[in-house]
Amino acid sequence: MSKTASTQNVLVLYSLLLVVWGFYRVLFKLPENIEEVVIKPVLWLGLLAYFLRKEGVGLRSVGFTSKNLFKSVYLSLGLGVLFVVVAYFSNLAKYEGRVSFSDFGFTGNALVLTFLVSLITAVVEETVFRGYIFGRLAQGLKSDFSANILSSTFWVAIHLPVLVFVYKLSLIDLSLRVVLVAVFGVGSAFLFSRTRNIVSSILLHVLWSWPIILFR
After folding, report:
1. Where are the alpha helices (DSSP H) in 95-197?
2. Are the C-beta atoms of residues 14 and 128 closer than 8 Å to each other?
3. How far is CA 121 from CA 89, 105, 125, 191, in A?
4. What is the DSSP string of 117-134?
5. Which residues, at least 6 apart from 50, have a Cβ–Cβ distance to it below 8 Å?
6. Angle at 84 (CA atoms; ends 82, 90), nearest 5 degrees
7. pLDDT tens for each residue of 59-80
8. How far apart are CA 216 and CA 214, in angstroms?
9. Would the pLDDT of 102 be above 60?
10. Which of 66, 82, 114, 204 has the fewest CB atoms nearer than 10 Å to its CB?
């Protein structure tokens, strides 16, 4: 498949996700665990599977490979620690200096559940955005930097419906969250560009999202 056709597939896939997922976020509200564990994987990965089949390629083309696995792990852990610190102190400010597991009544089961939800969400979102969208844009644009900026812009835009219509954030909180989402998107795409292994982005996503889920 030509680079132009591949880029066109990215735009079509993203447009479908933005419209369908955006309307879903506005019109429906099921328990978040159901949305993240069932609805999102079916919708996002279903669309991705269609385009991968259309291109005649498999999961290896979106970063599911053993190549650079060790490098992926240590790079994601290094950057992930930084993101965990940022997430922690962001919530520390939100809760006015009081953040602890006991304050929120967390049990061992709750911690495991939030981790599993984070992991599933990470696999779905990183496979689509970094593995497919960023990867195909990098090929089509012949520039990892340009592909990073464009895919990260797409990443921010697809989060806006939930931030505005579900979480109903104030303008200040919305602005802060947009910046954080953008920073993560750029960081995740950067890691993937260095490894071409989706494990790096998935691990980074878990390290970023789990503290946010726990403490929000």
Report:
1. 108-126, 135-141, 144-161, 171-195
2. no
3. 23, 23, 6, 18
4. HHHHHHHHHHIIIIIIII
5. none
6. 105
7. 999 999 999 999 999 999 988 8
8. 6
9. no
10. 66
The residue whose two tokens read 């995740």 is 188
Residue 208 vs residue 48, higher pLDDT: 48
The Cα 188–Cα 126 span in angstroms is: 8
d(CA 142, CA 136): 10
Which residue type does 10 have?
V
Rounded Cα distance, 1 and 53, in Å? 12
CB 176 within 8 A of CB 52: no
Retrieve residue 115's tokens: 């981790």
| This prediction's pTM | 0.90
Contact status, residue 210 vs residue 91, Cβ threshold 8 Å: no
Decide which of 200 and 113 is more confident.
Answer: 200
Query: Which of 71 and 98 is assigned the larger pLDDT?
Result: 71
Please tell me the distance from the alpha carbon of residue 91 to that of residue 76, in angstroms, as a whole number: 22
Question: Which domain covers residue 69, as residue numbers?
Answer: 3-215
Closest CA relative to residue 147, chosen from 183, 185, 198, 202: 185
CB atoms < 10 A from the CB of 34, how many?
10
* Strands (E) located in 101-167: none
Tens-place pLDDT, residues 161-176: 889 888 888 998 899 8
Burial environment of residue 139 by CB neighbours within 10 A (0 to 12, 13 to 18, 19 or more): middle
The Cβ-side half-sphere exposure at 123, using a 13 Å CA radius, reads 13
Number of domains in the chain: 1
